[in-house]
Amino acid sequence: SGSPVQFEQQCRHLAARGMVAITADYRVGSRQQVKPTACVADAKSALRWMRKNATRLGLDPRRIAAGGGSAGGHLAAAIATVPGFDEAGEDTTVSAVPDALALFNPALVLAPLAGVEMQGFESRVDAERMGTDPRNLSPVHHVKRGGPPTIIFHGRADTTVPFATAEAFAKAMTKAGNRCELVGYEGQPHGFFNHGRANGRYAETVAAMDAFFVSLGWLAAPMKG
């Protein structure tokens, strides 16, 4: 479920800072009765479409970030790590791998992983629900060297996608030699980053996301004062 409107305000912030910001729609189970395998295919198609249309859109095809929250965060991480699941007829010579990731309480562990207790969403995942063996769509199981620089925002009180799963992904990324920054928020539950969320951390996460892109050299540091 969900809507592209959920990240509209984050996109407006980035657009105001000079980035081309796109919030993408994709098929979901509640509307199109699809499995997550189709969602991953849609996410890969969306990123390839941006690269193929870079000149028309006025963007740098070598500096495309993917981001999202929860299931959308899973898709962003999946297209950066998981092989296959391309739409039939897709031009796979165009890379679907993003150049950076900004992930908000993303689902990153979808199959058993040593040292991580399955206790949130991932404990209810099976092949029937996912449309494939969950390991095939589990970002942490496909991390390798050369992955995109990543920042993860995660509530430490999240019971839907436990903080420990984000820690496991960040550890795997770092071990592979990739840049991965995990920012934990004490007492915050799932969805704490959403705009308009009571007692949430929208402003803080947007500021940290902005600083992340500044550190990559994609944005100029904001003017003080």
Describe the structure concisely.
This protein has 225 residues and is an alpha/beta fold. The chain has 8 helices and 4 strands; from the N terminus they run H-H-H-H-E-H-E-H-E-H-E-H.
Task: Note down, in words, how this protein is organized.
With 225 residues, this protein is of the alpha/beta class. The protein is 34% helix and 10% strand. The chain contains 8 helices and 4 strands, in the order ααααβαβαβαβα. It has helices at 8-16, 29-32, 36-52, 54-57, 71-81, 127-130, 163-175, 202-215; strands spanning 65-69, 100-104, 150-155, 180-185. Helix 6 (127-130) links the parallel strand 2 (100-104) and strand 3 (150-155). Helix 3 (36-52) packs across helix 5 (71-81). The protein is globular. The relative contact order is 0.15. The mean pLDDT is 95.
Let me know the average pLDDT: 95
Q: How large is the count of helical segments? A: 8
Could you state the order of secondary-structure elements as H and E?
HHHHEHEHEHEH
What's the β-strand tally? 4
Query: What is the 3D form?
Result: globular
How much of the polypeptide forms β-strand, as a percent range? Answer: 5-15%
Based on CA atoms alone, the radius of gyration comes out at: 17 Å
Unreliable spans are none
Largest pleated sheet: 4 strands, parallel
Could you give the distance between the termini? 41 Å
SS content category = alpha/beta
Across the major sheet, the strand order is 1-2-3-4
Bin the helical content: 25-40%
